[in-house]
Write a structure and sequence with these properties.
CATH superfamily of the largest domain: Ribonucleotide Reductase, subunit A
Strand content: under 5%
Strand order of the largest sheet: 1-3-2
Distance between the termini: 31 Å
Structural class: mainly alpha
Helix content: 55-70%
Largest sheet: 3 strands, antiparallel
Oligomer: single chain
């Protein structure tokens, strides 16, 4: 038998509280996160083992770089700046995860992959002839003059807040780099879809290939943090939706106002209609909610409102979140709590 839980104002279903303690939930959650990390790590080595110094078609960047528009160059330079704060992103995570071996190691590997993104945009700008080595050196030095902290973002605190924020941020970055990729292909005079020659060689032309490689990292990172958040919803629904609500209400890309060319970057974003609130809702917010398993923002709000009223001692397998935002509670207590 199951009971549909609609809202915190309704009567709670009568159930027999299971044996699950807070410690048992944390233990089960940690085990699932470890499984997510092991899968992610294996796929990273086998499918995304690339280097910005060895796997970019720099000769094609040199040949076609003059075709990049000033707005595209400003966008690339802005993304270089955002990616250059990777040291701050990693350091803050390492402090938060100091006593969590799995999340510490995950942070280190994630940071190593993210570190190659800023270098990639530096290589694109340099080999495209858009910026000199001296200009890039000064730009990166200016980036180091400011510091990013989680306090600049609502809800981004603690291990769960970091994963929840990253789930949205990585999806947003993936969208940005895919859109940049299509813009570069258009300016190169290439079709949106790969040419037969590109399909045959297994890589794209010039800076388009750089976008493809970085975007693949970003969507993979999104998937990793998505799975962590899904596990958190399973074991800590109330706390997770509280954090998600804060992040949704105040989401902003990291370091966007710290980068040296912030004004030029934001001006390019506006001129090209690269990103705005409507695009964020359609391309980031809604797809992330659907990936969680919710059909709309209304469903998200319903789930968040009801989550604090869910029973805390029941086997998590007995509680299911439906796509409408309703919670389904199965009235049985089979399954022993795990021990770490």
């Amino acid at each position: 038998m199951s009971t549909q839980f609609h809202s915190p104002q309704g009567d709670l279903p009568e159930i027999i509280t299971g044996p699950w303690t807070a410690e048992a939930r944390q233990c089960a959650f940690d085990r699932e996160v470890s499984e997510h990390y092991i899968e992610y790590s294996g796929r990273a080595v086998s499918l995304r083992n690339w280097s910005p110094w060895h796997n970019l078609p720099v000769d094609e960047m040199r040949q076609l770089g003059h075709r990049l528009s000033p707005e595209t160059v400003d966008l690339i330079e802005g993304f270089l700046g955002i990616e250059e704060y990777v040291g701050d992103y990693v350091q803050e995570g390492l402090v938060a995860f100091r006593q969590n071996r799995t999340r510490r190691n995950l942070q280190l590997q994630w940071g190593a992959e993210e570190a190659r993104h800023g270098i990639t945009w530096e290589e694109v700008l340099k080999h495209s002839g858009a910026r000199t080595e001296e200009q890039l050196r000064r730009y990166i030095e200016k980036s180091q003059g400011a510091r990013w902290t989680p306090l600049q973002h609502t809800g981004l605190h603690g291990p769960l807040g970091a994963a929840a924020y990253a789930m949205f941020q990585e999806r947003a970055t993936y969208f940005h780099y895919q859109k940049l990729r299509l813009r570069i292909r258009q300016e190169y005079g290439l079709p949106a879809t790969l040419t037969p020659a590109e399909q045959e060689r297994g890589s794209e032309v010039g800076a388009s290939e750089a976008c493809r490689l970085v975007a693949l990292d970003e969507i993979t990172h999104h998937g990793l943090f998505l799975r962590i958040v899904q596990s958190a919803i399973k074991y800590f629904p109330s706390h997770t939706f509280d954090i998600l609500s804060k992040i949704v209400d105040g989401f902003e890309m990291p370091a966007i106002r710290l980068i040296p060319n912030a004004r030029a970057f934001l001006r390019a974003v506006l001129r090209t209609e690269f990103y705005n609130a409507e695009i964020h809702h359609q391309e980031i917010h809604t797809p992330v909610l659907k990936a969680i398993g919710l059909e709309s923002h209304a469903a998200f709000e319903k789930a968040a409102q009801a989550a604090p009223q869910l029973p805390t001692g029941l086997n998590p397998e007995c509680i299911t979140l439906r796509h409408t935002g309703d919670w389904m509670i199965e009235e049985h207590t089979n399954g022993l709590q795990p021990t770490c």
